[in-house]
Amino acid sequence: MSKAFFQVDDLNTWFFTRKGTIKSVRDISFDVSRGEVLGIVGESGSGKSVTGMSIMGQIDEPGRIVSGSISLNGEELTKLDFEEMRRYRGNRIAMVFQNPLMTLNPLMRVRDQMYEAIGAHEDVPRNAMHKRCIEALRAVGIPSPEERLNAYPHEMSGGMRQRVVIAIALLLGPDLIIADEPTTALDVTIQAQIIYQIRRQIDERGLGMIWITHDLSTLSELADRIMVMYAGAMMEIGTTEEIIGGARHPYTRKLLDSVPSRNVPGEKLKQIPGNMPSLMALGEGCPFASRCERVTEICREPVPATQLSDTHRIWCLHPFEN
Amino acid sequence: MNEPIFEANDLSRSFTVGSSPFRDLANHFLHDRQPTVLRAVDNVSITLAEGETLGVVGESGCGKSTLARLIAGILPVSSGERRFRGEAYESLLARKRDALKIQMVFQDPLSSLNPRLRVGEIVGEAAVLHGVVPRAKVKDYVVEILARVGLPADSVGRYPHQFSGGQRQRVGIARALAVKPQMLICDEAVAALDVSVQAQIINLLMDIKRDSGLAMIFISHDLGVIRHLCDRVAVMYLGRVVELAKTSELFASPTHPYTRMLLEGMPKISMQRRKFMPIQGEIPSPLNPPAGCHFHPRCPIATDHCREIRPELREIKPGHMHACLNIEAR
Asked: Hey, which family's this protein in (chain A) (predicted)?
């Protein structure tokens, strides 16, 4: 797609530990367009969160971005120094984490935290700040935002706190929001409310969003495109219809099949045998090979990408027929 | 209908929040304020038949974990009675050997398994201590139990931290099974696991249920998991059971407005982008629940008497109960 404003190319993020090199993210490439939600789905250890942290420039020792490029509106982010990156963070790219209690400062009122976020990037008079905060809180569906501004995080429910975090993320009008399991800790009825409000903001403001999760069900209802990761590598990427309705990669199929709601109640769930391989001991070939029922000798060799349609790409030598 | 293995009548459990000796003393002299009481479980009556799996579903703070601990007998009740095969818990729990008939599997195996013990000791300890198996034979016995939950024999000498999350949950299940329980309570036992691992553990629990006819209470916030595993489901909201029915019936024709809201909010794998409807209202604080029907502030069909009268759980169809004043059987 040509209207992509955000691009990741051949990203490699590795962690150099005493025990060996953990290749958390290997050769990841994708883009995001305005008004689009790209879902990244994977299990623990798939590298989905490290991908998000790499974009935010928050990979700490002993890890680093080994190679690859991340560009926003044509500007290369991996080349920026700390101070330049700081100006991007929160301002052009914002991040929302799973646990709002870890993101919010427990000792500060919501108002002060929001003022701080604006003040870090812009010089705005107080009453203008106040107006902007109220608007942001209202946009994510917080009732009586004036009162909420004076509250401390512990005085709010989990859903309300996560809304505040999202409001802070929206404050500076970023181009891209990265959300890492933002609704996983919330109850279903609250999750549905928040997703509704986020989707509306994305459509109205033309933001791009990367939604990182292990939950395919939520993604299938929210995302425009879905990227499937496994053991640090991309398995499949395509529109939501292509992935949910026409997955070709054996791993994506297995992942979809193991969701309880796709199985007949009371019957055994289709499960994936075995465990994810250690990220230190990966060979050249497909990381899913050891658990795959379609595996052959050639799967031990590096697997090239196959373009199935303009939007659908897959890394598998024995894909399912459509 | 089988004879129930477990029965709870008007079970309640309250907690006093923020109580400390100092505050109590201060309140005593200053006649300040009443301590805040949280009614975590409020007049819950349920039964569990032999070989049955009962699901308890609800959102955070609805009291489902407290209910699990009451049923497991690790938390005393504030009022109400619990019976296991007709016998009151108070006398049952006094006999340690019989108390083992009720076992529990927890959400986080890392915090429920002793990190300093090897798996062999974790699984075998209680069984030896209570004479389920003689000490001389415990090694073979543990290996047999581990095989049943899909763990290799060499796990015996390893510590909990050396396992992955899914394997650790298998250890937790093996620990519970080792004392030959007759009732198993699983509190969010698969909530922390990845989808593919979750499927493995759910299948394991289904195998155990099929092979041994173990009665189970399965507590979860995940409707998909509940639907898959349970024969009957109880839906809880702020300490009360609001609907109780056969799983197929509950999912096909829920009657209580809260259950309907919950089912609508349940994410499903679908090909279409969902029109997420803004559901009104927050979950109220369990410390200060609304009067009458707890659900009335969020309920689309609430009327005046919902604000005043507490709806009792009543049967509206054979085997289908709910607590709503406004909806009759359809």
From this structure: Belongs to the ABC transporter superfamily.
Selecting from A43, A215, A254 the residue whose C-beta is nearest the C-beta of B267 gives A215
Strands A208-213 and A37-41: parallel
Cis (ω within 30 of 0) for the bond into A277? no
B283 touches chain A (CB under 8 A): yes
Higher pLDDT, B248 or A45: B248
Is residue A209 within 8 Å of residue A37, measured between CB atoms?
Answer: yes
A147's tokens: 């009162």
Could you write out the three-class secondary structure of B187-213?
A: ECCCCCCCHHHHHHHHHHHHHHHHHHC
Q: What pLDDT, in 10s, does the model give residues A149-177?
A: 999 998 888 888 999 999 999 999 999 99
Handedness of CA A226, A44, A99, B167 (dihedral sign): positive
- Write out the E strands in A154-266: 176-180, 208-213, 225-230, 233-239
Contact A215 B261 (CB under 8 A): no
Question: Does pLDDT of B123 surpass 70?
Answer: yes
Instruction: Enter the ipTM.
Output: 0.79
3-state secondary structure of A254: helix
- Tell me the per-residue pLDDT of B27-39, one tens digit each, with 9 for 90 and over: 677 666 667 788 9
CATH fold of B4-101+181-253, please? Rossmann fold (3.40.50)
CA distances from B41 to A108, B71, B77 (A): 34, 11, 9
CB-based contact A190 B195, cutoff 8 Å: no
Return d(Cα B85, Cα B91) in angstroms, integer. Answer: 12
Return the closest-CA partner of residue A300 out of A316, A283, A314.
Answer: A283
Asked if A220's CB is within 8 angstroms of B269's CB, the reply is: yes
Residue-wise pLDDT tens digits, A18-61: 989 999 999 999 999 999 999 999 988 899 999 999 999 989 98
Tell me which DSSP letter residue A224 carries. S
Residue B266 with chain A: CB contacts under 8 Å: 188, 261
Residue numbers in B near A44 (CB within 8 A): 165, 194
Taking CA atoms, what residue in A is nearest to B266?
Answer: A188
Output the CA torsion A292→A298→A299→A300 (10° steps): 120
Which residues of chain B does A217 touch, with a Cβ-Cβ cutoff of 8 Å?
A: 224, 267-269
Residue B284 contacts A where some CB pair is shorter than 8 Å: no
Minimum CA–CA partner of B276 in chain A? A196
Task: Name the closest residue on chain B to residue A278, using Cα atoms.
Answer: B164
Q: Distance, in angstroms, between A10 CA and closest chain B CA?
A: 27
pLDDT surpassing 60 at residue A1: no
What's the pLDDT tens digit per position in A251-306? 999 999 998 888 888 888 888 888 888 888 888 899 999 999 999 999 999 999 99
- For the record, the structure tokens of A86 come out as 């700081």
Q: What percent of chain B has pLDDT over 70?
A: 92
Full set of structural domains in chain A with CATH: 4-223 (3.40.50.300), 224-322 (no CATH)
Record the pTM. 0.86
Looking at the complex, does the CB of residue B161 fall below 8 Å from at least one CB of chain A?
no
**Pairing verdict, β A93-96 and A176-180:** parallel
Determine the Cα angle at B285 with ends B279 and B290, to 5°: 80
Q: How many CB atoms lie within 10 A of CB B261?
A: 23
Alpha-carbon gap: A76 to the closest alpha carbon of chain B (Å): 33
Torsion (CA) B278, B279, B283, B288 in degrees, nearest 10: 110
Q: Which of B194, B196, B269 faces A217 most closely, judged by CB atoms? A: B269
